[in-house]
Specification:
Four copies of one chain form a homotetramer. Chain A is an alpha/beta fold. Chain A is 30% helix and 20% strand. Chains in contact: A-B, A-C, A-D, B-C, B-D, C-D.
């Protein structure tokens, strides 16, 4: 039985994590923290029958757990991770704070200094399909962002094989509103988001680009980097991301060969659902699951390939992937609690 | 040409009013105020091409208008109405501040003193179907609440005729989220309201009950009053209210006679759509219009009649009805700008 | 391991059942039928990775299963149940065909003869909270309707205790669109149902009334029957029912006593979430779970009590309750596969 | 007063047209046809109070109208247009049948022969921003498709100026469900489309590509053509299209110069809302209006420009644009009935 602590249980990823872990046969939730609701119970905050006490982060009994999941805002997670690691406890951080291996890149994209740069070296980017081995041994896993998971997995087989014609690739993504968190704002006010559809932070400005380019450039491996033009859009649903990607293929690559790259990369992956020719990835393929659906659509008369991918931003894009990482770290069946 | 000022143009009712008045052939918007956005333009706040300057309420040139619409929160409207009336300008108040004729009832339901009780006498409850004559001559019109419009109009012919068996009546209402205004909150956060449906303030607690009971007791006319059990529910749509009402008929009333009461009351009303036998009122009957749809459904084997009504809470439930009142006050065709 | 067959796997209840049973540690799906898609696979019909073959009902290997779930339309289920029972296999019927113990009532409400009346005697109404003991031994369980589950459980403690003042009770229910099934129609066309809200079959006409009145009259036990005025409304969400009920209390009953009745009836029930005073039941309490949430709200100044209940129409209102019944029938933990 | 006939009033574009024309001060609806509902009234089909009789197309009194709007499916419109033109009546065809000037292209994209090729010469592509002069004199206007309106207007200033680096351009579009029409299908079933988001017909397969390429190649003017990679997606809203386009700029073009091209092309256009730098086009900018909103977003570090556009597919994408064309054809103010 893995004894689990959760830092930040009253955001959407924290609550999703509680729901997943309650169904997990080998995990036990020892404590749940909330700075804003310390002293209350989870059932005060969410419409659920679970009366977990919410405690302050400072009161968390770290000595009683094997792993801490951190569902804190970026910026706030750095010091909390250090506290966990100093106590010798393994950490799975769902924030962005340890996803970039380079503290300078972190400062450039997030606009403030990294206050625990000494931990960046030991952090493993927690995308099992790319880094399964390193995750198993990691003390600190940086759980990937939701958009990056959908885009990295959508392009990885192509990039790794050097099948791209171009150093730039367009990714047009559409995400449900829970991706913006639980804090009310005008953008996420029901009346504003319902029956609406809005591009936001399009071009080369969204912070998740840093992770995508880091991991895809690493996969590309020739030192030349990959430039992602990324257009996120706010979709009037609660959950899920569909990314529509437009890589251009290097001369000579046929759709059959490309399909072979994806099959080779993913046919044994328990959470990747590679769709058949003629299919496209929709939200319905993956919402409420830990799966990523990926489909390949050739464009007649063009060197452009359209890759569509979908996932649930709170599960494979956050808390489900975090539990998948926990399973790997503790030698459990990778799928446990996630089917 | 009626020269119009709008106090509070950056809430949903204010913006709806601007949209209606821009289509009105005999109205001209002279100024629009916003305390939070004074100095900006309407197109900074809403996704529209209209560059009306937003000014502070204190800077409003009252001498250049014939009427002021007040789209302010209850409580804030009382003093602003006094200011308008002191300048000799007619006022249409969309808040609740002048709907109750009794200052004590106002204090009881709204929890604070009425600070302009001397104006209560001249205020006319702006429901044209009940008070058309008085509205024509009014200096101050108290524009009805959205729920009360749907419920008063749904029950008025029955109540006026003394056709109720009981002094209490159940009204189960469902409203879109714009009824809760534009200020973000957890209740109206997209992720919380979408795919959800919630009763709230049910029983005998919602403030709109005061208006319903005032107007229906007045219509009943025998001094005994009517008690409304009112259950509002939050519906995951932007606009519209459906009310399902369960009056019990006094012995002897047939459905044909009851239908006759509604036809007599409403057949000449330009904005009441009395549905045929077998039909029910749905949101789609009225959203984006100034209409109220009303349907009567007898219950086999029971003295209960089901009345369903629907309206758009921002139009017939607020800004459209306000313009209807303006048309009456200025001798224009009541339907002008509203079809 | 319980070996399971599913008749009618390509409707929404059939697909939900597959999803639940795949997570059930003691169930194994042996076959899935579909008349319209026989010869295909489940993954042709739904966006899922499960390649179960779909076979014709006539080809189902009944000798290889312990229980058959029937997810067929009412009318079509009668003969199929007879076939299953003739083979000596236990049956859980999700249609309405065996819910009414009286064949004459079935004909009256459903408009056609019951063709397997000899099986009505052995059928048990599968609401565990009322009939747990009988379900354990049943050869044939008639799985309750979604609306009846929400209303019977909402009123049962009151009715059983004789706490109602009146023989009639009003239930105003709101249901997501999946309750109408998977067959396209204009009513369930996206453009018609989205941003809409519609009463339908209101009064004393909806077929589910027969079950409600049968079970509540039985609970009332004094032979006088209970008359349910039932107003279903179509809600623009996929899943979930909220019922708002307006029983009038007999003289002398206090809210504390009434709350005691519910606690007595439900405090040990694993799937009933009795909400605290001041709370109301919302969709979010129960969607995607097998729970029913129930809340009691007294009405100041009236003998009316407002009971709100919510459930997921495809889970506790259909396939989850069916698996709960299976667990009881086979001596498993009642909660298995359902948490 | 322009006397109007409508062929096909019971689809969504026909009903929208009725709604617009009822507000138009210089139009009078003389007849409305419906093959499926002939003999009934419009209020039998839609939740509205308008009792227009629905007649069969063969019974339409063509001699009593000045113009006929054809809201028929493609394929069905060809012969009906010939009938109207033979009677000497002007026609505005909302189907795709006369949008392509080349009968061979029509056959290639639509899969059947054009049966009225002799009328293709006189047909004018009804996009006022490109063909205002020709529309004024046209006997037959081919009203553009919804997607093409959003994409042609989004790219036209760039293409006309020769500012594209490439002969291919990517357009990723998202459309509400009313674009799929009123006929129920599994794709447009509420439960399937709600909370879902689906790419469909992506690549170079959607029929609307033919119009886009025809008009943009014409605007490009150098005979080399433009290739549009077009990815439509189904969005869970009723109305509206957002297109996100990714043209690559030829060397030397700055964002200021490009913005100048759009201002030059559109600053006098009454229905084009060119957004300010920093803004993006959202559904909310245009739904329920006849406007197109267009925004330009440069991509730091890339030659790619992101153009976002939005419109209401039933108004500027269909019936509103049709009325705009009628206004031009009959010498009325182009904006009449459309503000």
């Amino acid at each position: 039985m893995v004894r689990v602590g959760i830092f930040g249980a009253t955001g959407y990823t924290g609550y999703e994590l509680v729901n997943i872990l309650l169904r997990h046969p080998q995990a036990e939730i020892v404590f749940t923290t909330s700075e804003s609701s310390a002293g209350g119970k989870l059932s005060d905050i969410f419409p659920c029958p679970w009366d977990f006490p919410l405690i302050g982060l400072a009161d968390a009994p770290l000595d009683q757990v094997d792993v801490v999941f951190l569902c804190l805002p970026h910026g706030a997670s750095m010091d909390a991770v250090r506290q966990v690691r100093s106590a010798g406890i393994r950490a799975i951080d769902l924030s962005a704070d340890f996803r970039l291996s380079d503290a300078a890149a972190y400062r450039r994209w997030y606009g403030h200094e990294h206050t625990a740069p000494e931990l960046l070296n030991e952090a493993v980017y927690g995308l099992p399909e790319l880094h399964r081995g390193a995750i198993r041994d990691a003390g600190l896993v940086a759980n990937p962002g939701c958009y990056p998971t959908s885009i990295i997995l959508g392009l990885y087989p192509l990039v790794r094989a050097g099948a791209l014609a171009d150093h730039q690739v367009i990714a047009d993504s559409k995400s449900g509103v829970s991706g913006a968190g639980r804090k009310p704002s005008l953008t996420t006010h029901f009346v504003e988001a319902h029956d609406n559809f809005s591009p936001y932070n399009i071009g080369h400005t969204h912070r998740h680009i840093a992770e995508m380019e880091q991991e895809l450039s690493l996969a590309r491996g020739n030192g030349s980097g990959l430039y992602v033009i990324f257009s996120p859009h706010l979709l009037p649903v609660n959950r899920g991301i569909v990314s529509t990607m437009y890589p251009r293929l290097a001369p000579g690559w046929t759709i059959e060969q490309v399909r072979g790259l994806y099959e080779e990369a993913y046919s044994d992956e328990p959470f990747i659902h590679l769709l058949r020719a003629g299919q496209v990835a929709t939200l319905r393929h993956t919402v409420n699951t830990n799966r990523v659906a990926i489909a390949l659509t050739p464009v007649d008369g063009s060197d452009t390939l359209i890759v569509t991918s979908s996932l649930d931003n709170l599960i494979k894009g956050a808390s489900g992937q975090a539990v998948q990482n926990m399973n790997l770290m503790f030698g459990l069946d990778e799928k446990m609690g996630l089917m």
